[in-house]
Amino acid sequence: MDPDVLEFLAEKQRVNIIPTINSNVIHLISGDVGPFRAGLPVQVPLWMAVNLKQQQKCKIQAPDWMDVDVLETIKDREKVSRNFIKMPSEHYMVEAKLLLSAAPDDIPRTDEIRTIIKDIWDMRMSKLRASVDSMMKESGSYAAVDNLTIMEINSIRPILPHALDQLYRLKKAARMHGSTQSQNTTTFNSRLTITPFKS
Amino acid sequence: MDDSMGEQFDDSDLNITEEVAAPTTQDFGLDDINTSDTEALTASQVIELMESAWLNEKFSPEILPHKTEIVDCLLGQISYMEENLENLESNDFQKSLHQMETYRLRYLVTSYLRIRLEKIEMFNYEILKQEEVREEKNEESYLSAGELQFAKEYKENLEQHFDNVLSFWPGLPPDDWKKEYIKPNLHSFVFLKSKTEIEGVIIDDGNEEDGDLVDFKNGSQMIISYNSVSNLVKKGDVQLI
């Protein structure tokens, strides 16, 4: 999946903004938003928050988890846990990227937040690579990927599904070969060593 | 369409709509949409169904049953909104937001339809053959009327093109390309999220005749071969991600 598409998916996530303008309720197709009263927080989709911020019509309130202390706790839990822990947001990377770049002046300690999120991401990715590696070695044919966020899943696509598909083909070929060739493993092995360009 | 717009406007409190929308969409399995009246859904539920159909179509190797009702309903909402927008002044603060939303929804619908067209072009022979089988068995067609027409015309043009080119072939023109058509790889691996509790999904692992059995918990995520779960995808019990 294209990273743009990931961003598109994440942009329907809701965030709180503090508008600097007044407006009535906006009747969007996806639901009503507002009313906007200057200074009063209101919940809007992420895409709208970024757009309004660019027009300087609002301040963005960082989501609860986008806070140095909360993220440190998550980082520590991720460090001690063998499995992936549940992230506070399904789209934490996209949200962080969009909000931190659109509204660095509204969110305190942006640099620290960026570093911690990157640390968490790196930790999870190395866990992910290790588990993909062991899955291939055990030649598993299915696996639970609980608590992985969409972006993390996307990072092992298409390599993992393709690798599993090749593995499946090899297994199937070996099985078909075994049943038709009356279990003659020596021919099977010798056939494998023939280089295709020799003849 | 006007009726459902009115209905949506009645939900004045956004938070309530959101909270209600999430659980009820789970109750409406994707299957039900064909039998139940689409107009009874709120616009935001239609969008959720569209998103879910879009992602399923994106990640499934084969073409899935069409969702014309959802597409038509959403397109209706979009054009209704666009008509209304023409009456607004161009410097209206709300206009740009409405416009952005319609662009986003249009992208959703067009991307979904494009993916289907790509599949129809790629697996043309296979899809048309399966449609014929379905027609014989009196089953619901996977392609919409327009898509079926496109598929047939595409096939005709393709064959005509090959015939034209191969008329220069010395001797009997080869017709292998008609027999060796492209089929989707149903064993390919997909990521999914379960929407409900499902027990005893049989895994086809290529090793033995009977593979392992797996249970899905509600909300659990898996990587698994598509043919193990294709019926669950079509029923709407799992969401491809």
From TrEMBL, chain A:
<keyword id="KW-0539">Nucleus</keyword>
<dbReference type="Pfam" id="PF25005">
    <property type="entry name" value="PSF2_N"/>
</dbReference>
<dbReference type="InterPro" id="IPR007257">
    <property type="entry name" value="GINS_Psf2"/>
</dbReference>
<comment type="similarity">
    <text>Belongs to the GINS2/PSF2 family.</text>
</comment>
<keyword id="KW-0235">DNA replication</keyword>
<feature type="domain" description="DNA replication complex GINS protein PSF2 N-terminal">
    <location>
        <begin position="3"/>
        <end position="61"/>
    </location>
</feature>
<dbReference type="InterPro" id="IPR056784">
    <property type="entry name" value="PSF2_N"/>
</dbReference>
<comment type="subunit">
    <text>Component of the GINS complex.</text>
</comment>
<protein>
    <recommendedName>
        <fullName>DNA replication complex GINS protein PSF2</fullName>
    </recommendedName>
</protein>
<feature type="domain" description="GINS subunit">
    <location>
        <begin position="65"/>
        <end position="165"/>
    </location>
</feature>
<dbReference type="Pfam" id="PF05916">
    <property type="entry name" value="Sld5"/>
</dbReference>
<dbReference type="InterPro" id="IPR021151">
    <property type="entry name" value="GINS_A"/>
</dbReference>
<feature type="region of interest" description="Disordered">
    <location>
        <begin position="178"/>
        <end position="199"/>
    </location>
</feature>
<feature type="compositionally biased region" description="Low complexity">
    <location>
        <begin position="179"/>
        <end position="190"/>
    </location>
</feature>
<dbReference type="InterPro" id="IPR036224">
    <property type="entry name" value="GINS_bundle-like_dom_sf"/>
</dbReference>
UniProtKB/TrEMBL annotation, chain B:
<comment type="function">
    <text>The GINS complex plays an essential role in the initiation of DNA replication.</text>
</comment>
<dbReference type="Pfam" id="PF05916">
    <property type="entry name" value="Sld5"/>
</dbReference>
<dbReference type="InterPro" id="IPR036224">
    <property type="entry name" value="GINS_bundle-like_dom_sf"/>
</dbReference>
<feature type="domain" description="DNA replication complex GINS protein SLD5 C-terminal">
    <location>
        <begin position="184"/>
        <end position="241"/>
    </location>
</feature>
<dbReference type="InterPro" id="IPR038749">
    <property type="entry name" value="Sld5_GINS_A"/>
</dbReference>
<comment type="similarity">
    <text>Belongs to the GINS4/SLD5 family.</text>
</comment>
<protein>
    <recommendedName>
        <fullName>DNA replication complex GINS protein SLD5</fullName>
    </recommendedName>
</protein>
<keyword id="KW-0235">DNA replication</keyword>
<dbReference type="InterPro" id="IPR031633">
    <property type="entry name" value="SLD5_C"/>
</dbReference>
<dbReference type="Pfam" id="PF16922">
    <property type="entry name" value="SLD5_C"/>
</dbReference>
<feature type="domain" description="GINS subunit">
    <location>
        <begin position="88"/>
        <end position="165"/>
    </location>
</feature>
<dbReference type="InterPro" id="IPR021151">
    <property type="entry name" value="GINS_A"/>
</dbReference>
<dbReference type="InterPro" id="IPR008591">
    <property type="entry name" value="GINS_Sld5"/>
</dbReference>
<keyword id="KW-0539">Nucleus</keyword>
